[in-house]
Structure formats: structure tokens, C-alpha cells
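Input record, target 12 of the design panel.
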């Protein structure tokens, strides 16, 4: 995860590392010895989980690496359960910085071309806190956009995690996320930005 973010947003990286107990320094956005040590510890955990659960396809691995360690473990369990699903499943999106989230939000708005992808600005998506991932169902070389197939996958997986198909304000069937201590995104954001643990 940290390798992915340290080139673009050191402070964002520090917040995730601190919320999981890897980083013990100040949230200052400076890449120093403590940030580097936390980064290496996090990457060691990533490799250990990869060995334990098995390596996945390259796209899934890239996205899993962006998640918090706890989310990585759950996402790998999820993927292992999907191996005997009728179709091929990949993780196609993981953690996004606030800036990346804002870039997605602009698509299809303010005169920008494309179809709108998200309703959330930076800091208002659970993807911004290292705990959410989106999956894609693939077959015959195509990517499925059929909600029914994602509902079938969710029933097949049957894990104690949040599924976007159960959201009250948006029906987001490819979306999964870990449970937090409070199901309130503003509270999660405040905990994340202060480097405190927010997972249940």
C-alpha cells in the first residue's frame, strides 16, 4: 500500500499507517526514517499475507496492496471464496487518495467528458480510508455490469462485511468494505485524519 501512495501523498500514507499502528511519528507529510520504517513493516505484512492466502492476478494484487492490512486479509479471504464462483472475479479498485477521489468526481461534471463514476468527493468515500474495494465479474472477455450477478456473488461469498448492494442511498453492487466502529463516514474521516483506529 505505502509504495503506491508514497509518491503522491505522504500525509495520506502516514494516516493509514498510523491508524493501523505501523507509524509512530507526527502526521507531517514528510518522508523520514519513521515513515520509511512503517512503510517497510506494512509491506512485510503484505508479503506475508500474500504467501499465506496465495498470490492472485496482477490487477487484484495491485489493488489489494493499496488497502490497510486488515482489509487486505479480508479481501484475500473474499477472493479465495470467489474461486469457485461461476465467473472470474477480480478486485478492480482499492484505496484512493482524496485527490484521486476528486478527479473521479469531476468525470461527467463541470463540462468534463464521460459518464459520472461516483457521487462522493474526496473524504466522503470509504475508498479513501483503506477499507473498501470494488470487484468486477468477467466472462467471455467481457466485464459484467449486471446487478443480479453481483448479488449472486455476494450470496456465494457470504461474509460479515458491508456490501454496497445493501446501501440505503446508492445501489453499488460491486462495492465491499470493512465494518467501522461507527457507521458514519464523517466520524471515520476524523479518526483517519488524526491517525486513530476506526475499524470495528
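The sequence produced for target 12 reads:
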Amino acid at each position: 500500500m505505502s509504495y503506491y501512495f508514497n509518491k503522491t501523498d505522504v500525509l495520506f500514507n502516514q494516516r493509514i499507517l498510523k491508524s493501523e499502528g505501523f507509524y509512530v511519528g507526527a502526521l507531517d507529510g514528510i518522508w523520514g526514517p519513521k515513515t520509511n520504517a512503517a512503510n517497510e513493516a506494512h509491506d512485510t505484512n503484505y508479503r506475508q499475507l500474500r504467501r499465506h492466502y496465495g498470490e492472485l492476478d496482477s490487477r487484484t494484487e495491485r489493488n489489494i496492496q493499496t488497502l490497510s492490512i486488515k482489509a487486505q486479509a479480508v479481501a484475500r479471504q473474499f477472493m479465495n471464496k470467489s474461486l469457485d464462483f461461476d465467473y472470474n472475479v477480480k478486485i478492480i479498485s482499492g484505496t484512493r487518495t482524496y485527490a484521486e477521489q476528486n478527479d473521479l468526481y469531476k468525470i461527467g461534471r463541470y463540462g468534463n467528458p464521460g459518464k459520472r463514476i461516483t457521487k462522493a468527493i474526496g473524504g466522503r468515500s470509504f475508498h479513501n480510508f483503506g477499507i473498501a474495494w470494488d470487484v468486477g465479474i468477467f466472462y467471455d472477455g467481457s466485464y459484467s455490469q449486471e446487478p443480479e450477478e453481483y448479488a449472486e456473488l455476494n450470496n456465494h461469498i457470504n461474509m460479515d462485511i458491508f456490501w454496497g448492494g445493501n446501501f440505503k442511498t446508492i445501489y453499488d453492487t460491486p462495492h465491499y468494505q470493512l465494518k467501522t466502529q461507527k457507521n458514519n463516514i464523517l466520524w471515520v474521516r476524523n479518526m483517519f485524519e488524526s491517525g486513530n483506529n476506526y475499524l470495528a
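The radius of gyration is 17 Å.
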